[in-house]
Write a structure and sequence with these properties.
Layout lengths: L1 H43 L3 E8 L5 E9 L5 E9 L17 H6 L5 E3 L12 E8 L4 E7 L9 H6 L6 E8 L6 E3 L2 E2 L4 H5 L1
Antiparallel strand pairs: 1-2, 2-6, 3-5, 3-7, 4-6, 7-8, 7-9
């Protein structure tokens, strides 16, 4: 009788262990499916941004952002706009150039910067935000030509090297409950009079 009880106990333990293993596999599979669904939903809600950039006499530019979709996204809780350099390695000091990493980082290597006199824009004119962006409500930003760094030896060449080049942006969009979305558009300002003719 004791042997039969021992065999029954061992079988019960094996069934319990099998049940635990099965439950663990089911939990892992369920977590994977949930992660896939969250990723799919995140991709489905990737913001559709209409970005317009208009150049006016005097050199100033108006950058306009508008959330136009997708259907399930009625607003963005936070948007941050950042001006990127023409090349990612511009903030790296090279031996022999005599410039510090800070001097290089303070220069905006591109044709335009955000107007630093505007609220929520940093002192260099590199970043603006965060601001909320409801759907179908355009948000305008003022840009101006970049400043020639004090250490740059040929000031006329600074502006010349960026004539006709696009403004490189990094736009980070956040909505509560979702991972952020990051867009890296390159926008060339248009002349508003040129579009009329």
């Amino acid at each position: 009788m004791a042997v039969a009880s021992l065999i029954i106990a061992i079988i019960a333990i094996l069934i319990a262990l099998g049940s635990v293993a099965y439950t663990r596999r089911q939990t892992v599979a369920s977590e994977r499916l949930t992660a896939i669904e969250v990723l799919r939903r995140h991709e489905d809600l990737t913001p559709d941004l209409d970005i317009r950039c208009t150049h006016f006499d005097g050199g100033d530019v108006i950058l306009e952002l508008e959330l136009t979709g997708p259907a399930g996204l009625d607003r963005l809780d936070e948007v941050c706009v950042r001006i990127r350099n023409d090349r990612p390695d511009r903030t790296t000091s090279r031996a022999g150039n005599g410039l510090s990493t800070e001097q290089l980082a303070d220069a905006i290597w591109g044709p335009y910067r955000l107007n630093p006199g505007v609220r929520d824009t940093d002192r260099l004119g590199r970043e603006h935000g965060p601001f909320s962006l409801p759907r179908q409500e355009p948000y305008k930003l003022s840009l101006e030509p970049t400043m020639v760094p004090s250490w740059y030896t040929v000031p006329g060449m600074w502006r010349k090297q960026y004539e006709g080049t696009p403004i490189r942006l990094e736009i980070t969009c956040r909505r509560d409950g979702y991972q952020p979305w990051v867009a890296l558009p390159e926008i060339t300002p248009i002349d508003p009079l040129a579009t009329i003719w």
